[in-house]
Design brief:
The complex is a heterodimer of chains A (154) and B (211). Chain A is α/β, with parallel strands linked by helices. Chain A has four helices and eight strands, in the order H-E-E-E-H-E-E-H-E-H-E-E. In chain A, the strands form two sheets. A five-stranded mixed sheet of chain A has the order 5-4-3-6-7, covered by helices on one side. In chain A, strand 4 and strand 5 (87-89) form a beta hairpin. With 211 residues, chain B is of the alpha/beta class. A five-stranded mixed sheet of chain B has the order 4-3-2-5-6, covered by helices on one side. The longest helix of chain B is centred in the last third of the chain and has 23 residues, at 147-169. The radius of gyration of chain B is 27 Å and the shape is elongated. The chains are: A alpha/beta (154), B alpha/beta (211).
């Protein structure tokens, strides 16, 4: 029994030399995933909830349209407006904008362009259907209603 | 001199973690993990102004009518509703009704798993078969309908279809929906789910009255 010596003193020091490495690893993860917002959103964005979400694979094919009430009503009024890139546009400008976005894609991908419609939940269907009509005219028929996941209660 | 060189030269690395923490917190705060998620919808091709839209003759029983008015109230198959409870199941039963199946539809019915066969009500007042031209879900809104309600309805219609597709291939609805189609096996699963049951969702132009 003498073989099993009782440990008299436990080594209580936790080695912390690897801590910076762990933190750095986390840091790099967030540095890589971060997308610094390069454009300011000028309209209100309360994205509606839905359950049947699908994810798009190719992000380069997506162009974003933001729809909502302007955050600065004294400048832009209180009616819902459309924002493309960093300016507010009218419904009639969508055709031009889609064509510009299509020009940024390679020729084979042009007809696969997907418009992600980030509309505020308070927007009415009137402006939305006007946008859809313009998108049909512009032959950008893949449309995604951007929405966030909803927790189902059943 | 000799004494100094023998001393262990070690940079104090204790504050390194603090610096890394600071950077970490900065990126944590500024990160918005891009969420490109949403409900996909394929718009119909543009209309030729010289040609009237093609008239599609469909029997009334083959159309599942969902009307949403400017007050976000629903009229589903003629019944007034305040909310969308149970709508997805009704749509599912409508699509899979098989009221008047032709030869192909009978073959389709026989290929279905038992859980889907069970919901086939075969009611003569509901859809003929789930194949092209057999069952259409129509959503009509008003210009004053809120986008949120419209999306909620569209979401439920999509849910009904995805549930059918998922049951056909024996996956859960979430699993089926997240199939990316990047590998051949996944594409095969997606196609097998959809085969002969197209997502026939008709979204009518909103009307202007009462907005």
């Amino acid at each position: 029994m003498a073989k099993f010596k009782k440990k008299t003193k436990a080594d209580t020091n936790i080695p912390t030399s690897a801590l910076p490495d762990i933190i750095f690893m986390l840091l790099f993860f967030f540095m890589v995933t971060t997308v610094l917002r390069e454009q300011e959103i000028l309209v209100e964005q309360k994205i509606p909830q839905a359950t049947q979400l699908q994810k798009l694979q190719k992000k380069t094919l997506i162009s974003y349209l933001y729809v909502g009430k302007p955050k600065n009503p004294s400048l832009y009024g209180s009616e819902p407006r459309i924002q493309a890139n960093d300016v507010l546009i009218n419904t009639s400008d969508i055709l031009l904008w889609v064509n510009q976005e299509k020009d940024n894609l390679s020729e084979v991908e042009r007809d696969q362009i997907t418009i992600s419609l980030k509309a505020d939940r308070e927007v009415k269907m009137g402006p939305i259907s006007d946008i859809q009509f313009e998108l049909r005219e512009a032959d950008a028929r893949k449309l995604m209603y951007a929405s966030v996941g909803k927790v189902e209660n059943n | 001199m000799g004494k100094r060189s023998r001393m262990v030269q070690e940079v104090n690395a204790g504050s390194m973690a603090d610096i890394a923490f600071l950077l970490l917190i900065f990126f944590l705060v500024t990160t918005t993990i891009a969420s490109d998620k949403g409900i996909l919808n394929i718009l119909p091709p543009k209309q030729d102004p010289n040609q009237p839209p093609p008239e599609v003759e469909l029997n009334e029983r083959n159309i599942f009518n969902i009307l949403v008015n400017a007050n976000d109230q629903l009229l589903i198959e003629g019944d007034f509703r305040e909310n969308t409870d149970g709508l997805s199941d009704e749509i599912k039963r409508f699509i899979m009704n098989f009221g008047n199946p032709d030869e192909d539809a009978v073959a389709l019915y026989n290929s279905l798993p038992a859980t889907l066969k069970a919901i086939a009500g075969q009611s003569p007042e509901s859809s003929d078969h789930p194949m092209t031209g057999g069952a259409v879900v129509s959503i009509k809104t008003n210009r004053g309908t809120s986008y949120e309600t419209y999306l909620e309805v569209l979401d439920l219609v999509k849910k009904a279809y995805f549930e059918i597709y998922a049951e056909r291939v024996g996956l859960s609805t979430d699993e089926y929906r997240t199939l990316s189609g990047q590998s051949a096996a996944e594409r095969e699963l997606i196609d097998r789910g959809k085969e002969s049951i197209p997502m026939a969702i008709s979204i009518a132009e909103p009307d202007k009255i009462g907005s």
